[in-house]
């Protein structure tokens, strides 16, 4: 009996396991995972702890979007807009969403304070880019949301220093009745370099999908890319940045499609061929042939 | 237990081992259920006598040792470890030889092992295992894959012979993961696991091996096909729902 007790997990270990499961939930499935984890732990207090530590991390890394209670739009949960543990800035409406991480809802909003917002100079660039990205999103993503944040230099009053904007695009599709969920997340860091009058972009794109009808198959795809353009006035900058982002994301989608179409005859073939090297079904009925083939394969050195 | 199986349906298949050991430590009272219902990636040992590798599973395990199909010896060595009857061992040897050729023809590499044992109702059970590392550093002939693993587990319960026929119940699981990685398209990774069952009554005129082999070949082709067409296809469909490819023509920035 003593042995059994010794080998039993302590509370911290149990909580760590619970957190591991929660953080590894596929896109849009953390609530389902949470239900199962809660049942397995059978300890509500421990579960609450694990949940309160995991959900904020999951919500931010999956960049989930929550509808604002006044229906003026959506707020994306990301570290770029994080003002406090439960407070996330929506730069477009200059509001701060107060959210419940575990329930994944926005409970109330408050107007952002002046010090939480960028200076008018930065805001001009941010707002112009937001408008262009919004246009792009509405054309390219049926259910996409986007936000443009100021990453650094938000208090600059005019030219003379570097600053950074961050474009976040998040699109999710949850279709549990069809056993399918997925998400697309893009983060574009855009640095305005004052001394060389150049704008440098670096993008991180991540796509996940899960199909689980009588099985469990998951796609996990990531891509990073860089580009740059010359510094111009806010409007022109916004137009060329949006066009660069559109270009890279369109190319990335095409490369994903190419990866899929390469599967049957190239990549998947390295795991198992559709037909044997002989291109005919295996001759199970002809055992005599086996000893013969075996000798040949030995001679050719392909047998193990 | 239901919740545990629910989690296994959602956790990324490449984390199956971690997930299973986590569940085993949380639910020690369900360990035998978990081990029988959750398939995990196959492990390999080297047979010291023949120098050939063999696959480990619950079916060739006795205590902490595993029986090699090549030498019929347990590794690490085990006195009076369970062995199949002489007659069944003969079939097992033959099955291993033939399955090696089958595996080479379909997989162009990899490892296979077949284990057989008597069961309680006058029939027997056979377990056919295949493990293939299809990465370019492994047995991937074409060198496309950064990482690529295929594990297949086929368990066939063969009923007693009745009037020249026998009942075969095949349960098959395939677990796979593949990753391609290049500058232009980044990391592209698919992983999955599916399990299916097939039942047949067949004449044993041509022998058990022939019947079992055909069933496995048919099943493997079906599984490969549905992974390729259905499962991978559904994830692709999802990607194209998120961002449809038929995007409006790119607008050029105004001069």
Oligomer: heterodimer
Query: N- to C-terminal separation of chain A?
Result: 48 Å
The radius of gyration computed from the alpha-carbon positions of chain B, rounded to a whole number of angstroms, is 21 Å
- CATH T-level topology of the largest domain in chain A: Aspartate Aminotransferase, domain 1
**Tally of DSSP helical segments of chain B:** 5
Whole-number tally of structural domains of chain B: 2
Subunit structure (chain A): Heterodimer of an alpha and a beta subunit.
Protein name (chain A): F-actin-capping protein subunit alpha
InterPro entries (chain A): CapZ_alpha, CapZ_alpha/beta, CapZ_alpha/beta_2, CapZ_alpha_1, F-actin_cap_asu_CS
GO biological process, one term (chain A): actin cytoskeleton organization
Task: Outline the secondary-structure elements.
The complex is a heterodimer of chains A (about 300) and B (about 260).
Chain A lengths: L1 H6 L3 H13 L6 H12 L2 H18 L3 E3 L6 E3 L5 E3 L2 E4 L4 E6 L4 E7 L8 H21 L3 E9 L10 E13 L4 E14 L4 E14 L4 E15 L3 H34 L19 H14 L4
Antiparallel strand pairs in A: 1-2, 3-4, 4-5, 5-6, 7-8, 8-9, 9-10, 10-11
Helix pairs in contact in A: 2-3, 2-4, 3-4, 5-6
Chain B lengths: L1 H9 L5 H11 L4 H7 L5 E4 L6 E4 L4 E2 L2 E3 L6 E2 L10 H22 L3 E8 L5 E10 L13 E12 L6 E18 L3 E18 L4 H35 L13
């Amino acid at each position: 009996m003593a042995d059994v007790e010794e080998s039993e997990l302590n509370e911290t270990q149990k909580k760590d396991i619970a957190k591991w499961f929660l953080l590894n939930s596929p896109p849009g499935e953390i609530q389902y995972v949470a239900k199962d984890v809660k049942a397995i732990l059978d300890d509500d207090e421990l579960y609450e702890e694990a949940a309160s530590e995991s959900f904020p991390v999951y919500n931010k890394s999956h960049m989930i979007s929550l509808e604002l209670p006044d229906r003026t739009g959506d707020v994306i949960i990301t570290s770029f807009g994080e003002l406090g543990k439960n407070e996330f800035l929506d730069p477009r409406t200059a509001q701060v969403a107060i959210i419940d991480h575990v329930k994944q809802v926005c409970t109330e909003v408050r107007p952002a304070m002046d010090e939480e917002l960028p200076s008018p100079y930065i805001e001009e660039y941010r707002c112009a880019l937001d408008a262009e990205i919004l246009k792009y999103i509405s054309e390219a993503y049926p259910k996409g949301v986007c936000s443009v944040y100021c990453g650094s230099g938000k208090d600059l009053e005019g030219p003379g220093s570097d600053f950074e904007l961050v474009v976040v695009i998040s699109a999710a599709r949850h279709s549990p009745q069809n056993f399918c969920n997925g998400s697309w997340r893009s983060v574009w860091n855009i640095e305005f370099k004052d001394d060389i009058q150049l704008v440098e972009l670096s993008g991180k794109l991540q796509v996940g999908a899960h199909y689980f009808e009588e099985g469990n198959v998951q796609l996990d795809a990531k891509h990073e890319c860089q580009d740059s353009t010359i510094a111009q006035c806010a409007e022109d900058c916004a137009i060329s940045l949006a066009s660069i982002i559109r270009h890279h994301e369109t190319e990335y989608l095409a490369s994903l499609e190419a990866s899929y179409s390469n599967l049957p005859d190239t990549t998947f073939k390295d795991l198992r061929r559709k037909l044997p090297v002989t291109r005919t079904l295996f001759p199970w009925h002809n055992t005599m042939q086996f000893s013969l083939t075996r000798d040949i394969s030995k001679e050719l050195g392909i047998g193990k | 237990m239901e919740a545990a199986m629910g989690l296994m349906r959602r956790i990324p298949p490449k984390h199956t081992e971690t997930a299973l050991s986590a569940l085993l430590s949380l639910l020690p009272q369900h360990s035998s259920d978990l081990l029988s219902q959750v398939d995990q990636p196959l492990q390999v040992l080297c047979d010291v006598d023949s120098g050939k590798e063999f696959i480990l599973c619950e079916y060739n395990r006795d205590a902490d040792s595993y029986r090699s199909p090549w030498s019929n010896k347990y590794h690490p060595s085990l006195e009076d470890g369970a062995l199949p009857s002489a007659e069944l061992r003969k079939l097992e040897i033959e099955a291993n030889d033939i399955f090696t050729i089958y595996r080479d023809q379909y997989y162009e590499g990899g490892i296979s092992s077949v284990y057989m044992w008597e069961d309680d109702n006058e029939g027997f059970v056979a377990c056919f295992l295949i493990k293939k590392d299809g990465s370019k550093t492994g047995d991937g002939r074409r060198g496309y894959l950064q990482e690529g693993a295929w594990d297949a587990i086929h368990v066939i319960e063969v009923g007693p012979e009745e009037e020249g026929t026998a009942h075969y119940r095949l349960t098959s699981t395939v677990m796979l993961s593949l990753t391609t990685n290049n500058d232009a398209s980044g990391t592209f990774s698919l992983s999955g696991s599916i399990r299916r069952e097939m039942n047949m009554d067949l004449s044993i005129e041509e022998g058990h091996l022939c019947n079992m082999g055909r069933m496995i070949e048919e099943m493997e082709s079906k599984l490969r096909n549905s992974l390729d067409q259905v499962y991978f296809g559904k994830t692709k469909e999802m990607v194209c729902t998120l961002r449809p490819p038929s995007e409006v023509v790119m607008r050029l920035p105004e001069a």
